[in-house]
Write a structure and sequence with these properties.
Helix content: 25-40%
Number of strands: 6
CATH architecture: 2-Layer Sandwich
CATH superfamily: Beta Polymerase, domain 2
Shape: elongated
């Protein structure tokens, strides 16, 4: 940013913020698009879990508005520990983004919703065996 004052820098930042760049990394320098910030946090939690992890819903199919939520699905053969998921949900709630993040366990999802949701996804991680995605 080239602004010399805080007001000038804030004015420069507005156009980037409108594009979804609003989440600062712990280094205080790197700023990520909100989707990338969510992806990194979710994958960090699922790094040692054999699971399908994916984004679905309006953020993938192009129907998202500026305040749309993020729908993140996962499917793991082994249950993911409750405290780990609770910590992840809390961290996602604290992100400075206008919409919320829904974390959906697809082990418990069946029928029409699952079929519709899985039509268009952005796969972030695939299971080694029994993946929802061939």
């Amino acid at each position: 940013m080239r602004g010399k004052t805080a007001l000038e820098r804030r004015a420069e930042w507005r156009r980037w913020k409108k594009l979804g760049y609003r989440v600062a990394e712990p280094d205080g320098i790197t700023v990520l698009h909100e989707k990338e910030a969510i992806r990194r946090r979710v994958l960090e939690v699922f790094k040692d879990v054999d699971a399908d992890v994916f984004l679905f819903g309006s953020q993938v199919d192009g129907a998202a508005g500026p305040f749309s939520d993020y729908d993140v699905g996962y499917d793991a053969d082994e249950p993911v520990q409750g405290p780990i998921l609770a910590a992840l949900k809390h961290e996602l709630e604290e992100l400075p983004i206008p919409g919320k993040v829904d974390l959906v366990n697809f082990r418990g999802v069946a029928g029409e919703f699952a079929q519709h949701a899985l039509k268009k996804v952005e796969v972030w991680k695939k299971k080694k065996r029994n993946s929802l995605f061939a």
